[in-house]
Design brief:
The complex is a heterotrimer of chains A (about 450), B (about 525) and C (about 160). Chain A is α/β, with parallel strands linked by helices and about 450 residues long. Helix content of chain A is about 40%, strand content about 10%. Chain A contains 18 helices and 9 strands. In chain A, strands 6-5-9-7-8 form a 5-stranded mixed sheet, covered by helices on one side. In chain A, strand 5 and strand 6 form a beta hairpin. The N and C termini of chain A lie far apart (about 70 Å). In chain B, helix 2 crosses helix 3 and helix 7 crosses helix 12. Chain C folds into 2 domains: about 60 residues, Arc Repressor Mutant, subunit A (Orthogonal Bundle); about 80 residues, 3-Layer(aba) Sandwich (Glutaredoxin). Helix content of chain C is about 45%, strand content about 10%. A 4-stranded mixed sheet of chain C has the order 2-1-3-4, covered by helices on one side. In chain C, helix 2 packs across helix 3 and helix 3 packs across helix 4. The longest helix of chain C has 12 residues. Classes of the chains: A alpha/beta (about 450), B alpha+beta (about 525), C alpha+beta (about 160).
């Protein structure tokens, strides 16, 4: 399999996004849009579509990296229940902003990919769950859907093939957990966005207890191009176990933050230095989070790695959502971790005990360390609590909070110890079962916190 | 009966056969295995959010919650392996992170799942030194108070209100460790089953104002009995301290009330020792309850001897137990009083209410109408009551014995007139009635918490009532009195036990079909031949 | 419930038409809850207790249920929110590029802290989590619109524009 070198790499997902009018149906059709879908619907059987996607080794681009074709094949063939295709456009993983680009500036490739997918699954109802904050993307998608209905691309007779598909935009309202597939389904059902117990898995029992497939925006956009240019083309880009073009989002301390379409497997340092212009202000690299805040951090010396599923897994981290957050040598890692932990504590749905209590607890410990009130045993306690949160919850938000905590505390332990030594908390080690902190003996941070709480008893 | 499919699995190394699709936690509990839990409740749809019931599944990479994991063929479970025990201890540590150390002031202490599970499965001491999340303490409605800090977000109360009561007043609000249960402003907890949320709250987050600070549960005496407020006959547990009823809670019975009771039955017990309770005793020149049997026997015998058996009339009630009705009938039979002279009264109907989860409050507000029908005959309430009342207005009726023990419902004026004008009038009285004349004999009636016996609910289920409180001074146990009267009349040799009495009664009364006391157990026995 | 407060608000005719259309897109009424809450937000400016009761009545859900769902999500306008909801993204990528300076500037200029509303009801300041615009950090979302690549100068200009 010839690996396409970066220079020869041709963008497909973001090929037209910088051009005027790229979002319109006319533009899309003018550049060959919907021809792939028409071919697939007219010439292939649904099973053949699934086989094609399986053969392509397309892996989910939302964060989990699950093989897309395999997920589709879990949907039972013989069932009276309606089958649902749900597009996960809830993009909320910190450091990730790629789906937005597609939805704002080239929405029809998402619609086309959804068409092909729905056809493969035998689904006639597609919901696009978009995060509430993405208002522009929502308007853009809605416009594209309206255009598609008018042109007979959606509705009762898709592209004249007799296939029927209805697509509905559904806005979220500010909850990261609704990016978790079953949290999303709960939210779609008009409930609190609480993830569901698995098994049963959504492919068997999902939305409204019917077979459901949830796919990420970028994944479905890839489906379009697989049927446009072929499986061989797709597999020739990047490593065979997880090929294809990939949108990587670079943010943080770089000269040129942005979304970059690159071949799977591109070297992380090349991405940061060549595409994103390297570390800003002449500073040096300290650490990179390679796959959204849920991914374990890589210290500078670990960043020489290919951006693909297997290579990153081998370094005990993950490609995740492809959100590359770069930190320079001036970054306070304790503060960075506190920020991340605050995020997870804020976003935890609160359903299950380890996550509900653990995320807030970790945030508080880190906060104390940050504000000079840390105790020598605190970093080890954070590591211990992180470990205990993993594998015990309904969804993996607990793990997503534990990974950055465990990796940042481990790899930057000195910074934590320094802050503890420099603060005044180290003289108040509280032994197991010892006295609780008395009011008046609280640090400024905790006193503030206590003061701001009104009511209570 | 369709044949149920079973699966074979291994629990703690032991081969087990269980119904296919049953939840693992039930399979374990049925075998007496201690798989602890908080959010699981057998009467509610499981949610699996507390994570306390995590067990080790040998081939899986992580522990599974037993309450939402159905058993499958070949499954291998360890409930007490090191990983399973570690999972439990860790979950408890997290659960206690924000939980206030309220035990010294919390009603739930002593019956708290968090206490019990911590003691059995938790770590020693706490590592949490940070400021805990604070949530409001507020009234939710219907006498239920929320102590928000204690809430562990198990959602049992939310599920109860939406699935069983069907009214959906309660919901979890907010997110993460700020989440707590709440009711929407202006829509407080209002459904007639609301008290059950206090029963099912695993911790002291939901507190009953009725029971607040009334008693420490480990000092209370707990007695199984049956609610007397309607003909459903919901199973209850009466809790008393120093002979006062402190609380009535639901008792599980799949054939009657599942795990629930209504608020009316739950909170109606003040009358037992309330200001209206009649404790006055006067019977001719009796010096006290000790000589009551002899006096009463003599009084009744002489009346019947002098004026004929037809001159004595009796009005029983649908509140009386089967045994009391039976003994009363026996006394009258011994005196050869015709059956037309034996009538019964009942409380007026209320409104029938049914709820989403299948619970029902009956329109019939009497606990033992079926008992009266079986033992005294159905016409006791209707035609015989009418006739007896008619007779009492004439010269023929000389003696009238009334049972006025319907809480909150005094007898109609006509009966009181008849009582007052009889030569010999005796009333077994529960609640004071100023209309009764001085010459009428008074014996205090037994309240439902003071009696042992059986009653029959509207479905034909005989259930045991047990005495939870002692009789107040001056009151007599009606069963004992009547047995002693029978002895005085020469019909018996001596008192027999409660058990013996039941067996004797069930052998004689056709509707009771020869049931044995030993068959009644905790959940009763159906005599209608329907579902058990 | 006889003594429950009466539902005071009503949806416009256009709103009711939209709800009708919506109900045709989902198999049950409950699924339309989030979009109908958005409609209430649009028609009434924010979602207060009266709006909750109207939505509950419209979709045949208990007000307690709607309340539980509403309080789960953080992106609905609630009672007391000012005309301009200034949502400052505070998650790591924005924090790495100076969102704290933006935050402090806003606190200074408006005289309020995060979570508060100015006395004239014009501005509410909120710290929010990742808005998905990390490459143009720091970012503030004003009502529905993203304002990206902010620095102090741009921010001051933005405030001026909003005040007019």
């Amino acid at each position: 399999m010839t690996e396409i070198k970066p220079e020869k790499f041709e963008k497909v997902l973001t090929k037209y996004v910088d051009q005027e009018g790229s979002a319109s149906l006319d533009f899309y059709r003018g550049h060959g849009g919907y021809e792939a879908a028409e071919r697939a619907l007219k010439k292939l059987k649904p099973d053949e579509v699934i086989e094609t996607v399986k053969n392509s080794n397309l892996r989910g681009r939302g964060g989990a990296g699950f093989p897309c074709g395999r997920k589709w094949s879990f949907v039972p063939k013989d069932t009276d229940k309606p089958k649902y295709l749900v597009v996960n456009a809830d993009e909320s993983e910190p450091g990730t902003f790629k789906d937005r680009v597609i939805m704002e500036r080239d929405p029809h490739q998402l619609i086309e990919g959804s068409l092909i997918s729905a056809y493969a699954l035998g689904s006639h109802i597609c919901y696009i769950y978009i995060r509430g904050e993405y208002y522009d993307a929502f308007l853009s998608m809605q416009k594209a859907i309206d255009e598609a209905y008018e042109a007979g691309i959606l509705g009762k007779n898709v592209l004249g093939t007799g296939f029927r598909l209805d697509m509905t935009m559904h806005r979220g309202a500010g909850a990261y957990i609704c990016g978790e597939e079953t949290g999303l389904l709960s939210s779609l059902e008009g409930k609190r966005g609480l993830p569901k117990i698995k098994p049963p898995f959504p492919a068997v029992e999902g939305l409204f207890r019917c077979p459901t497939v949830v796919n990420n925006v970028e994944t479905l956009a890839c489906v379009t191009h697989i049927f446009d240019r072929g499986v061989d083309w797709f597999k020739s880009i990047g490593p065979p176990e997880g090929p294809g073009p990939k949108l990587l989002c670079v943010s943080g301390h770089v000269e040129r933050p942005g979304t970059y379409e690159v071949p799977m497997g591109i070297n992380l340092l090349d991405l940061v230095n060549d595409h994103a212009g390297g570390i800003w202000k002449g500073n040096k690299l300290k650490a990179i989070i390679p796959g959204g805040s849920s991914a374990k951090i890589l210290a500078a010396e670990e960043c020489d790695v290919g951006m693909d599923y297997e290579s990153l897994a081998a370094k005990d981290t993950m490609l995740g959502s492809g959100g590359v957050i770069v930190m320079d040598n001036k970054t306070d890692m304790v503060e960075a971790l506190y920020n991340i932990l605050r995020f997870y504590a804020h976003e935890s749905c609160g359903q299950c005990t380890p996550c509900r209590e653990g995320t807030g607890w970790l945030q508080k410990i880190c906060g104390r360390i940050l504000h000079g009130d840390g105790r020598p045993e605190d970093p080890d306690m954070m590591l211990d609590l992180s470990k205990k949160m993993c594998g015990r919850t309904i969804c993996v938000l607990a793990d997503a909070a534990a990974f950055p905590c465990e990796s940042i505390v481990s790899k930057f332990r000195a910074e934590f110890d320094e802050k503890i030594a420099a603060g005044d908390g180290h003289e108040r080690t509280v032994h197991l079962g010892g006295p609780l902190v008395q009011p008046g003996a609280l640090s400024a941070h905790n006193q503030e916190r206590l003061d701001e709480l009104q009511g209570g008893y | 009966m369709t044949e149920k499919q079973t699966v074979n699995l291994t629990i703690n190394g032991e081969e087990v056969e269980a119904p296919a699709g049953e939840m693992l936690i039930k399979v374990c509990h049925d075998r007496g295995l201690d798989v602890p839990f908080f959010c699981y409740h057998p009467g509610l749809v499981p949610e699996g959010n507390c994570r306390m019931c995590l067990v080790e599944v040998v081939k899986a990479s992580k522990p599974m919650p037993a309450c939402t994991t159905p058993v499958t063929e070949g499954m291998e479970i360890e409930t007490h392996s090191e990983p399973a025990k570690a999972a439990r201890a860790d979950v408890l540590e997290f659960m206690l992170a924000n939980h206030p150390l309220d035990c010294p002031i919390c009603d739930k202490s002593g019956e708290c799942l968090l206490q019990d599970n911590s003691y059995a499965h938790g770590n020693d001491g706490s590592r949490m030194v940070d400021v805990k999340e604070l949530k409001p303490t507020k009234e939710l409605g219907n006498g239920v108070t929320l102590w928000g800090n204690r809430c562990i977000s198990c959602t049992r109360c939310v599920r109860f209100c939406s699935d069983i009561a069907g009214s959906g007043e309660l919901a979890m609000v907010n997110r993460g460790d700020r989440s707590v249960v709440d009711a929407f402003p202006g829509y407080p907890l209002q459904n007639p089953l609301s008290g059950n949320v206090v029963d099912i709250c695993p911790v002291g987050a939901l507190i009953s104002e009725d029971f607040l600070y009334q008693a420490r549960v480990w000092y209370e005496k707990k007695t199984d009995s049956v609610c007397h407020e309607c003909s459903r006959g919901c199973n209850v547990e009466i809790q008393t301290l120093h002979n006062e009823v402190k609380r009535i809670v639901a008792r599980h019975n799949d054939s009657v009330n599942d795990y629930w009771i209504c608020d009316h039955g739950r909170y109606t017990y003040d009358y037992i020792l309330g200001p209206e309770r009649s404790l006055e005793y006067r019977l001719g020149d009796s010096s006290g309850p000790a000589d009551a049997p002899a006096l009463l026997a003599q009084k009744l015998k002489s009346l019947v001897d002098e004026h004929g058996a037809d001159s004595l009339g009796v009005l029983a009630s649908a509140f009386m137990s089967n045994e009391t009705l039976y003994l009363l009938g026996s006394v009258l039979k011994e005196l050869e009083v015709p059956v037309e002279n034996i009538a019964a009264c009942a409380r007026a109907d209320g409104k029938e209410e049914t709820f989403k989860g299948g619970f029902k409050i009956s329109a019939d507000r009497n606990p033992n109408r079926r008992g009266v029908e079986a033992i005294l005959g159905p016409s006791a309430f209707s035609s015989r009551a009418e006739k007896l009342l008619g007779k009492s207005k004439g010269p023929g009726l000389r003696g009238l014995v009334l049972v006025s023990d319907l809480p909150g419902q005094p007898l109609p004026a006509e009966w009181i007139e008849a009582l007052n004008s009889a030569d010999f009038g005796l009333v077994f009285l529960l609640e004071n009635d100023s209309r009764i004349s001085e010459k009428v004999s008074l014996i205090p009636a037994t309240a439902f918490s003071e009696r042992d016996g059986s009653i029959i609910n509207e479905d034909g289920r005989i259930q045991l009532v047990q005495a939870a409180t002692q009789l107040p001074r001056g009151a007599l146990r009606l069963d004992d009195l009547l047995q002693d009267v029978l002895v005085e009349l020469g019909a018996r040799e001596g008192r027999i036990s409660q058990r013996g009495l039941f067996d004797e009664m069930a052998g004689i009364i056709p509707a009771l079909k020869g049931a044995r006391h030993a068959e009644l157990g905790k959940t009763g026995l159906s005599i209608d031949g329907g579902e058990e | 419930m006889s003594d429950a407060p009466a539902v005071k608000k009503k949806f416009s005719n256009k709103g009711l038409e939209f709800i009708d259309w919506l109900l045709g897109r989902y198999p049950d009424k409950q699924a339309a809850l989030l979009p109908v809450l958005r409609l209430a937000e649009e028609e009434f400016g924010n979602i207060d207790n009266d709006s909750v009761m109207l939505v509950a009545e419209t979709l045949e859900l208990s007000p307690g249920y709607v309340w539980g769902v509403l309080t789960f999500y953080t992106h609905y306008r609630r009672e007391g929110d000012g005309k301009y909801l200034l949502q400052v993204c505070s998650t790591l990528p924005c924090a790495l590029r100076g969102c704290r300076d933006i935050q402090h500037r806003l606190e200074e200029k408006l005289g309020i802290e995060a979570g508060e509303t100015t006395e004239d009801g014009l501005f509410t300041l909120k710290k929010v989590e990742c808005l998905g615009s990390c490459d143009t950090a720091p970012v503030v979302q004003v009502n529905e619109k993203y304002h990206e690549n902010l620095d102090i100068e741009e921010l001051d200009k933005l405030l001026e524009t909003l005040r007019d």
